[in-house]
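BUG-440 | component: ligand-complex export | severity: low

The export step for glycine jobs runs without errors, but we want the raw record kept on the ticket for reference. Input record follows.
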Amino acid sequence: MIHIPKAEYTRRRKALMAQMEPNSIAILPAAAVAIRNRDVEHVYRQDSDFQYLSGFPEPEAVIVLMPGRQHGEYVLFCRERNAERELWDGLRAGTEGAIRDFGADDAFPITDIDDILPGLIEGRDRVYSAMGSNAEFDRHLMEWINVIRSKAHLGAQPPNEFVALDHLLHDMRLYKSAAEVKVMREAARISCAAHVRAMQASRAGLYEFSLEAELDYEFRKGGAKMPAYGSIVASGRNSCILHYQQNDAVLKDGDLVLIDAGCEIDCYASDITRTWPVSGKFSAEQKAIYEIVLASQEAAFAEIAPNKHWNQAHEATVQVITAGLVKLGLLQGDVDELIASEAYKAFYMHRAGHWLGMDVHDVGEYKVGGEWRVLEVGMALTVEPGIYVSPDNQSVAKKWRGIGVRIEDDVVVTKQGCEILTGGVPKSVAEIEALMAGAR
Ligand code: GLY
Ligand code: MN
Ligand code: MN
């Protein structure tokens, strides 16, 4: 299995600590277990920031980073080994495993955190944490601070600065290392295979969930624990619902099906959309819309390179889509004016992409100092233009209504431009029709 090597976690912690103020402390909690319904839990997914710094896969854990601390800069609080619990729920690293396998300098039982952590915070000037994202943890943090304050008369020194960790950590996460790109390539490779399989399986009379099952099969077979987000399998007019998740309609001859799905490998997402005809052959109208979306995506790729800014790719898609809609008669008027008045938003209402990484909509600022961010090597993003003609749009001829097309690929910025990670699944009309014909 391709995964992030242990040394990389060490490197990340060191890089973060190098940016922290002297005499400071960073504290991050693991994700909580989420209850699905009585006695049933959701599949556990580690918090992305926590995972990024530790690779530690368990709940009920807290990372503490203290740059310059003599007795160890990295302390991990975690669950203790417990024969009874491990019999029911599986193995735990325990404090020994935290040190031996996960590189902690020191580890303590999570049940002792209230006794130990105030002592680690005491005397540090500044606390970094993900303030505001975990109310329960924020409350605990204030309790630990209050323990120190209550001892002020004994000379205890509570910190007086509380700083959001996000700014430092999320900027680090925005730049993908070679190891991260390798994992993302693997997630992309498996997701491409899943889309190919779903295309080959596509038949009128099946259900949207039948194709979802084909995706899930490839995801799991490839070693992915789960999809990176709820798979969207949207046929016919459902393709015009951007985050459609019902996935239970019958696939009909003559309809398109839009699948937006990607798996997650070692907590790195892939995010692919392909749109194809249920029965393998595009109609004239479907093809006309599809070709515009595809051309707009090509135009966007050309705008992704170092020194181009974040919005250039989006602007390129807006230009091509608006001109294309005018050509088909779906919009009337001057292209520049239609762009200025945002008339295209009736058909293309989302942006061309987002950062991609451990979170499918990954962290990282899109603007810096009020200006669109300039792209740099190692940034990963999606390119996902679409055209959606609402089934209720009375201002276009009936033949166009209910057609929804999105095409989405994942890219990493390189020195020369960008590497497309998701090229392994057909995209042109001819390629898609050929693949589907071969599967009949
Ligand atoms: N799958 C959600 C998105 O494409 O952003
Ligand atoms: Mn997507
Ligand atoms: Mn996306």
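Assignee comment: Attached the raw record above. The chain has a mean pLDDT of 97.
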